[in-house]
Amino acid sequence: MEKERTIDLIDRNTAAIEALIRVKIDIWQERVLFTDLWWLGVGLSVVPWIVWYLVRKKSSTDRLFYAALFVAVVSLTLDVLGDQFGIWHYRFNVIPVLPTYLPWDLTLMPVTVLLLLQAKPSANPYAKAIFFALLASFVGEPLFDWLDIYHPKNWRYVYSVPIQFLIYLGAHAASRRSAFEPLA
């Protein structure tokens, strides 16, 4: 009996979420799609990767993609959690059904880290991590807030600094991996 009640509650909650997502898609189609801020998001999703592709060290492409994947997965996961817990939310999404701003998580964060990893590779990674954390937290976030794309409801930019610092250090460590064990 308790299991059926739980299932019913979960199913009703899911139906309510699905109804709200349909409303979100309608708003997006009518008011966001093809606006200047939507096109900005599309551009920010593609152009930084093109720039990186042109300036990358070709012999390090696989290793750097490994670091980029780390950054993207961590950024995306934390962004979804922040949105779902009501700490912040995004407007003018490139894709309406995703709660995160994909250009930030899948392009700007990873590409910025990749460019920093490539620039002066022997430089102190802690100094680079501090630079990245300050850049992302006190330039990137305020810029997207000013553009009304990002709305920090219960979040201050300074809270992001240690998170961004750790993300960079994790990517640095991932980029320094020299070998993997064979699968077989």
What does this structure look like?
- There is one protein chain.
- By secondary structure, the protein is mainly alpha-helical.
- It has one domain.
- Helices cover 72% and strands 3% of the residues.
- It has helices spanning 2-31, 36-55, 61-84, 102-118, 125-146, 157-175, and strands spanning 88-90, 150-152.
- Strands 1-2 form a two-stranded antiparallel sheet.
- The protein is globular, with a radius of gyration of 19 Å.
- The model has no long low-confidence stretch (mean pLDDT 94).
In a nutshell, what does this entry contain?
This protein is mainly α. Helices cover 72% and strands 3% of the residues.
Number of separate domains: 1
Largest sheet: 2 strands, antiparallel
- Any low-confidence stretches, pLDDT <50, length ≥5? none
Helix content: over 70%
Radius of gyration: 19 Å
This entry's quaternary arrangement is single chain
Helices and strands: which structural class?
mainly alpha
Count helical runs: 6
Spatial ordering of strands, largest sheet: 1-2
How many strands? 2
Spatial separation of the terminal alpha carbons: 48 Å
Mean pLDDT: 94
Shape: globular
User: Secondary-structure element sequence?
Assistant: HHHEHHEH
Strand proportion: under 5%
Protein traits:
single chain, 184 residues, mainly alpha, 6 helices, transmembrane, transmembrane helix, CBO0543-like, membrane
